[in-house]
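I hope you will forgive my troubling you with a question about protein structure. I should value your view on which stretches of the chain appear to form regular backbone elements. Here, with my thanks, is the record as I have it:
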Amino acid sequence: MRVNMVDISEKDIVERIAIAEGKIYLKRETIDKILKKEIKKGDVLTTAEISAINAVKNTPNLILLCHQIPITNVDVHFKINEKENSITASVKVKAIAKTGVEMEALTGVSIALLTIWDMTKYIEKDEKGQYKTTRINNIKVIEKIKKEK
């Protein structure tokens, strides 16, 4: 079996944008502590934002055979839904390149959500150390744009 990187040498260099999002469900207590900035490890959303940006920049190191893409912008947003005790992470990635940035956007979202989980796990665990309510789901590409010359 042979493994190859996809040949993109014939593709045009154009602006490429991808937006991905995903959601983490937490306990009500955890959401309250995030909003009040009372998490022991620090500011959860700022840390998750920086982690997402770092993940986007390091995608080719994390996912084998991904091309190194010159990222021109990463925009990270969080939306807290207090009714369903969730946080939605959204990551928009831009590049001027020969290939798309959807893997970078998906990686950014995944790491943002995992960072939130890591920073809040001490609250999320039950008395047996299990995560009964904590879950990450709905990670998907929302939009992919290729701006032609």
User: Anything to note?
Assistant: The radius of gyration is 17 Å. The chain has one domain: 14-147. The first strand starts at residue 14 and ends at 25.
